[in-house]
What does this fold into?
Amino acid sequence: MPRVCFGCNAHLLDAEHLLCTVCRHDLPVTGHNFLKENEVDQTFYGRIRIKKAASLLYFSPTGTVKNLLHHLKYKNQELIGEFLGDWFGKTLKRQGHLKAVDYVIPVPLHPKKLKKRGYNQVDAFGKSMAKHLKAQFLGDALYKTANTRTQTKKDRLFRWKSSQNLYEPNPDYSLSGKKVLLVDDVITTGATIEACAKALSTVKAIEIYVATMAFVPKLGS
It folds into this structure.
């Protein structure tokens, strides 16, 4: 099969990987770091105790970021997650604001959905992040207790209510007193991250940080 850009379908040159130079250059990078306050932090104010949060890219209903994440999630293109995790991980390592993370933990899929899809689209992203942050990746530190349908089109209140208590920490791991980085693909309302952070917060003295591939900005921001 020809190597094509996941953003625009143009044929890739030998030196290009996953994205053509034009699409890579045009990606809407947030510039978030783990030092200054940003709109992802603000999403969780008054909702759950998270030390710091950041996203790599802005997500919009059309465009390269949507195409990338669609291929990652539904087209078995796990290399996209690895690519984004490598990029974000290198950036955070260079900035040096996120230090001494013990574990990187992905938002989990329900076992039925995992079996159907064959992979968790967040795992490759989390593994690449962990490599650069010199942390341990724990793919099963959280588990999902119910197989809910996609929440993309649900309103925020319904999403928030339906996400509560859907996740539980794995008792096989000792996370007490640890610094963990919770990773996911896209933050929209923040309900899923909030539910996962709520589950992790039942662990004594845990510190929770959040990193995602993309973030849906609020209108007017």
Observations:
- The chain has a mean pLDDT of 91.
- The first helix runs from residue 21 to 26.
- Strands lie at 52-58, 103-106, 136-137, 142-144, 167-169, 179-187, 207-215.
